Every structure is written in C-alpha cells, then in structure tokens.
Amino acid sequence: MLQMPDDRENGQMPAVVVNRADYVAPAYWIDTVDLCFDLDPAKTRVLNKMKLRRNPDVPTQPLKLDGEELNLARVLVNGQGTSFRMEGNRLVLDNLPDDFELEIFTTTCPAKNTKLMGLYVSNDSFFTQCEAEGFRRITYFLDRPDVMASYSVTLRADKALYPVLLSNGNLVEQGMLENGPNGPRHFAKWVDPHKKPSYLFALVAGQLVSREQRITSRAGKEHTLQVYVRPGDLDKTEHAMNSLMHSVAWDEARFGLPLDLERFMIVATSDFNMGAMENKGLNIFNTKYVLANQATATDTDYSNIESVVGHEYFHNWTGNRITCRDWFQLSLKEGLTVFRDQEFSQDLCGEASARAVKRIEDVRVLRTAQFPEDAGPMAHPVRPDSYIEISNFYTVTIYEKGAEVVRMMQTLVGREGFARGMTLYFERHDGKAVTCDDFAQAIADANPGSDLARLLPQFKRWYSQAGTPRVHAQGVHDAAARTYTLTLAQSCAPTAGQAVKEPFVIPVGLGLLGADGADLPLQLAHETAAAGTSRTVVLTQASETLTFVNVDAEPVPSILRGFTAPVVLEFDYTDAQLLHLLAHDSDPFNRWEAGQRLAVRRAIKSIAAVAYPVDAAPLDEAYVQAMRSVLHHPRLDAAFKELVLTLPSETYLAEQLDVVDPQRIHAVREAMRQQLAVALAGDWQQVYEANQGTGAYTPDPTSSGRRALAGMALSQLCLAAMTTGDTVWPGKTLQRFKDAGNMTDRFNALSALVSSGHPLAAQALAKFHAMFKDEALVIDKWFGLQAGAPDRSGNVLPAVRQLMKHPDFSLRNPNRARSVISTYCQANPAAFHRTDAAGYVFWSDRVMELDAINPQVAARLARALDRWSKLAEPYRSAAREAIARVAAKTDLSKDTLEVVTRALAD
Ligand code: TRP
Ligand code: ZN
Predict the structure, then answer these.
(1) With a threshold of 0.85, does the pTM exceed it?
(2) In this structure, which topology does domain 773-906 adopt according to CATH?
(3) d(CA 445, CA 456)
(4) How far apart are CA 192 and CA 316, in angstroms?
(5) Which of 35, 287, 639, 757 is deepest in the core (most CB within 10 A)?
(6) Which ligand number lies closest to the CA of residue 336?
(7) Which CATH class is domain 470-572?
C-alpha cells in the first residue's frame, strides 16, 4: 500500500493505492456466518456469529476485520469478552486461537445511508448492496472475495411494515415474535446452501408483491422463480419473468449450466447505484431493468431488461460459483458475463440479420464509450494493476472490452471449443476464487493445438496492456502476377504508466469483394487451392503480409469483418470502394461500417473547413443517393437501415480528431442531419408510411426495427419542416404522439418534436408529464429528453436549472439525478461545452453536491470531463479549472478524488 504521490494541502485523508502485486491470501478463513438482523430504519441491530480458522499457508498475523460507519457494541471470542484495537476503520484482534467463534454486535442507521452501499432504505423498504465493499457497512468482516463462507440469516421486523423478509438461499423457518412498540413482529430464517463471498450477501424487507413461476429444468428439477416489486407494479413484471425463464433455458442449452437453487428471486428497487446485482439467489435490480409494459417502456427498455436479467442470472455460474480472487480480477466475471449476455440476446434473435444488428449495437457502445476511456486519463488494462477506489473500476473497459477479449478467445478456438473450455473451467475451479489467468488457461488447455493454446502468453497482453490497438492495412494489386497483397501493421499508443506496448494477438475477419460485389474465393500464396470466401487471420507481429493469389482485378478488401477484435482499423479506402462495400458486403457489420466511414469522412472534412459556422451542405449527392438506396433496399431489415442512416455520434466524431471543438462537431452533424432530412424528405415519407403500423405490440426485433425506422423518419420529417415551413408532418407527429398504442411510438413522436425544436414540443411535453406523473421511470424519460435537447443559443442550461427546481426532481435518487445532470453533462456535448464555461461550473457544483450524498454517482458524473485535454480553447482551460475546483474541495470522497486527480494528471 502506498500513499498518493501528491501532497494534499487541503486536509484530505491521504488516499491509499491498492496494488495487484501486493495480493496475499487472508490470514484467517471464515467458514460459517450466522447473522441476525433487527430491522429498524433508524437503528438496525446486527448480531454476527462467525466460525474462523487460521490460514496455515500464511504466517501468523492478527485478524483485521473491515468495517465502515458501524457502531460497535460488543466483541466476544468463544463467548468471552476480549481486548481489541482499531486501526483506522479496521477492528484488530491479536493472540487468537487457531479455531474459534467470534461474535460481533453492531448497529447502523439505514435511513441515513444515502450512499446506497450496505443496508439502506428505499420507499420504506430495506435493501442491501454489497459489491464491491458494502458488506463492511453491515458488519465487521474479512470483506474480500476470496473469503467464502456459508451463511444463515435471521431477519426480524415489524410485520405490518415489512411483511416480506428475504435473503439468499432457502427459507427454512418463519413465524411470529413478541409484539414490539409498533405492533406484531415476525421473523424469517434463510440458509444459503452455497458458500459465497460477502459481496454476494443480500437482504430485502418491505411491502412487496411477487409474480411467481414454477419451472422444470432439462434434468427434471423443479424451481420457483419470483419477481418482487411494489404493489402497483405487478403488471410490469411479465417481460422480466419471461427473460428469466429464457435465461435459465439458454444457460442449460448452450453451456450445460443448470440453475443450482430451488428458488431464484429478483427484487426491484427505484434507488440503486447501478443496473442490477447478482446476489446469490436474490438478485436486486434497478426498477429500470425490471419494469415494463407497452404503455410505459420502449423497445430499448425491453431489450435492456432482457440483457440485464440474463446478465445477472448468468453470473450465478460466472461470478458466483466461480468468483474473483481479488478485485483486480473483476473482468473474470464481468467481461465473461457480458460476453454471455451478448450471446444470449443474439441467440434469442433467431434471424441472422437481427444477430448482426445486435453485434453492431454492441460495437457502437464499445467504440463510443470504451475507446475514449482507453485513450483518456482513466485508461486501465482489462486486469488493472492498481486502484484507489474499486467502485471506479466498474468500467466499460472491464465490462465491454473484457467481453471482447472473451469473444476473441471464442473466435480463436471456435464455438464448440469455447464451450469445452467453459466445461474445463468449471471442472477445475467450481467453488473457488480465481484469476483471469486461470480462465484463459482453461480455455486454452481444453483446445490443445489451437491458436489460443499456441499463443496464450502473447494473447494475455489483452489483459495487461491498456489502450486501443490500431491496425493499419494497405493493399497492392499486381495485375501481372494476379496477386493481391495486404500488409497489416499494428501499433498501440502509450497510456499512463505503459510507454511501450508489445504486439497483440489480433484475429482479423477478412474477405475480398470483386467488381460485381460478390466475395472472391480466398487462396493464400502457400495454399494449394482456394478455401472459403471469408476467413480469420491471426496477427501476432508488428507487421505482416498476406498474399492472395488468382486475383484478376483489384478487389475491395473487407477487413475486420464482424469486428473480430477491439481495434481501430485504418485503410485508405476510396469513396468508390466504401460505396461498393455499403452496397454489397456480405458481412453486415462491414456493410454498416462502410456507411459510417463515408459519413465520418464528410463530417471531418467539414469540421476542418475554414468556413464557420459551417458548410451548410457537408454531404454530397453520392452519399445521399447511397442512403436513399439503403432506405429503399428490398432485402435489408428496417433495424439495419436505421443503423446505417444514423450518423456517427458527436462523441465518436470527437475521438477521430486531435483537437475537439464540440460546437463545431455539433454544428456539422446537425447540418448533415438537416441535409438528409430535406434531400430525402419524400423517401422518409414513404419509409414512415411503410413502417408505421406494426400491429399489436410485441418487442421482437422485426417489429421494433420497424418502429425505430418509422421513428427516425418522423424525426427527419419534423426537422425538414423547420426549414420548409411544412406544417403537415409536425401535426401528424403530434397526432401520433397522442394516439400511440405503445411507449416506443409515443416517445419517438415526442422526441421528433423536441429534437427538431418545433413549437408543438411544449404542449406534447406537458401532456406527457400529465399522462405519466405517477410512473417514475417515464418521468425520468421526460427529464432526460429535455436535458438532452439540442441547444439553441444556450437555452438548455437554464432549462436544466429549471428542471432541478421541479417538484419531481431529487438529487438523492440516482435515476432521477442522472436523467437530468448526467444527460446534460455526458450526452449533450454542444449544450454542455459552452464558451462561457457555465456548463463546467454547473458540472463542478453538481459533482461536489452529489459527492456529499452518493460518491459513486458523483464519481461517474466526474468523468464527464475525462477528455478535457483534447478540447480546443477556450474550453480546455475552462474545463481544467473546473476539475481543479472539484479537486480542491475538502472532504472529497476517494471515489471522486481518484477521478479528478487522474484527470488533472493527463
Ligand atoms: N456486479 C454488478 C453487475 O455487473 C454491478 C454492480 C451492481 C455494482 N451494483 C454495484 C458494482 C454497486 C459496484 C457497486 O451485474
Ligand atoms: Zn455483472
């Protein structure tokens, strides 16, 4: 452990750096934990009886138990009072026997727990959140994932206020207690049959109702699935339950992994820091990822619910049965489980085209969120080497890049080989706390002779080296020799603490298109015959060359098909080549990517142009015509068309530039949208008419794709109306908003009016609020839509300040705070990056204000200025000043301190 290398003059506690290299096994094992809770919002009493055993593998040491914000009343060793001391937050006991019982009695105040870590109250019910280090806020413990214990839990509470009492595992006993001051009290006792680390502990108590489903597994075992919500929300649980049933069936079918519990529960809470949590047998979810009916939830909500329910369920094996040795191994469970939930959602699609759409969406998240992270001050390897606050490392790198690393393993060993690897992983490590090395080794060992097995040490650089590799490709056609030579060179820019990078193992999906658009048969110089039209080559060197033979005319290479590796591919395509790929590539990912490259190229040219505000017409006729062809294509699905017609985001464009002027990027992208709206006005009308009626609502990929495309058409028609003066389409849009039979159509119509800045937006927004005033998740959408609205002469910031004064606004509820503040600061660049720096001042005020309430939420918001050093002046200096202002605050949490300190060091 080290001190932070800065000298803090503002009276803050020195922040402790935790290093991966310092791992030592615990001095004691905890075999059993018997917890008894007397639940009371003001003062909950926790009696913790543990059986401990010295770890013979490490030298004798005192027992140092983690604790945070606890009131300690009593410590007994083998039933006897004992001396103890405090070392900071730790409770230290010396001279212990080898085996002993430890009894600790503490109290906490859940009602005042605004951090939402540990035991807290939300809407008069009790919930817990223990990952990563929240259990120490409930009782003194060895709060680290390699200490796995058997838990039994007794919950005692007033029966009227807390009729439902839940914890992990099986309910073994329940009954009445003596009356308390508020009337009858009752208890429930739960025993978890599986050993688990403390971060998977959970309890829930309150007035909840459940949807229940009995299922029979493939092996013939019976299970009860339950989804618990507040009494009014039962009609919004069907989709979550269906998603859970699909998840159970999928894990059995694809990986042979059955549900290992008689009872599996999901509970929804509206106060939650993240998406959801995989507590053993008792998953706790943000309501956003549970509640849905067609009146309140969009297609995107439905698909997010499916993914998150799957994700948490799949953790039961990848995370819970096999867990992490230490938090540096977080991607062991998160990268793997994201990979699994991505595969699950793809497998549920059925149609190949819908699978491709899902893949494109996943890659879009990676490139707009993870690539910037990997290029900024918070860059870290998939397996980090150090941290100050582990909560800051629940990142897109750990999750999404981690999932890409697992996906590359599957690419290298094949789908069946990967399933074999998973089987070996469970044979070796079930019930244990292990490392990323153990996982990679199991996949490789199950596939001897594979590229992964051969290249494993080099492949593992994906775990140790941060930064996004670039693959620079060049192609030369030799007409006389009838060869096409591709040279692929890889490089990776330095990141903090890693100046020099060694070459990665990079699988590259590849094909060559002929003049007619068909794939050419592929034959490399050393091969005796052509084999296939698409293949994966595995790069291992800084530069390598591939020579394809029997190539008569210069082909168009389709490189990195399916996005087989998380890299930036550079190839100096001509416009004609990109148009050819967009029209013909058999790989849907690269077909979409060609359209994105065409748009990026045009945007960048316009952003760099001297003319300012900007060239009114960044798009040329060839691009517009290509988009028109896509819109009218007889075989492409609506969902795919919508993705192709969506211009690269402002964030993605910013990453392509060395110096970022957010106003200019916004102006150019808006000009492009405007141009597509006007030039394709007639096409958008046809597209709208052809896709607007999707019949009875179902959230399947085909009908949601049609709704997405119809929604885009309306947006474009309203935008065009702003310049043409058309009143028909805005009127139709308002009508559709009123008549819509589902939230997707209603919200798309509302967004079309808001994002075009049409005067009709105001009345639609007012009506929307009135219609859904009692639906918290819909009100979040209402706030978010306004905080994310396009900026017209600086109007958004004052609107955001007004929204914060709305009676429905609350800083304490993370979903609500994020809907206004994070949307404004992190999803509305042109409104946020103001020349008068008022956006940054607003940001620093909110970060500091939130930090005192909920450090995790504050630290995430703090990352809005991660990329400050790339900004053009005057933004750059003003942003730095705002960050410094936050960093100078006394009593900052270590969460926020770590983020702003790293930002300033950039
Ligand atoms: N393990 C959870 C998941 O990915 C993440 C999570 C939920 C979390 N709540 C948290 C992480 C609170 C840190 C803090 O499924
Ligand atoms: Zn997870």
Answers:
(1) yes
(2) Zincin-like fold (1.25.50)
(3) 10
(4) 13
(5) 639
(6) 2
(7) mainly beta
